[in-house]
Design a protein that fits this description.
The chain has helices spanning 2-8, 22-27, 32-42, and strands at residues 12-16, 19-20, 51-56, 62-66. By secondary structure, the protein is an alpha+beta fold. The longest helix has 11 residues, at 32-42.
Length: 71
């Protein structure tokens, strides 16, 4: 399992609890504009407060975990 994680890589958190993780974004060469574009296209939202966490996956895709909507 450890070798597999080394070969495949690990997800990198880019956004958490309403805040960009700027150190990680810079390290991965992802701008806020790139992030916002993916947020619109993949998460179907322009509102950062709807995103709980966003991760750069080893595949290069950004995955978004949405906040639960209160009803």
């Amino acid at each position: 399992p450890a070798l597999c994680a080394f070969v495949k890589g690990k997800p990198v958190v880019l956004f958490r609890k309403g805040a960009y993780q700027t150190k990680e974004m810079r390290a991965q060469l992802i701008s806020e504009d790139d992030f916002k574009e993916d947020m619109r296209l993949e998460a179907k939202t322009e509102e950062k407060d709807e995103i709980k966490v966003a991760r750069l996956e080893p595949s290069g895709d950004i995955s978004f975990i949405m906040e639960k909507k209160s009803t």
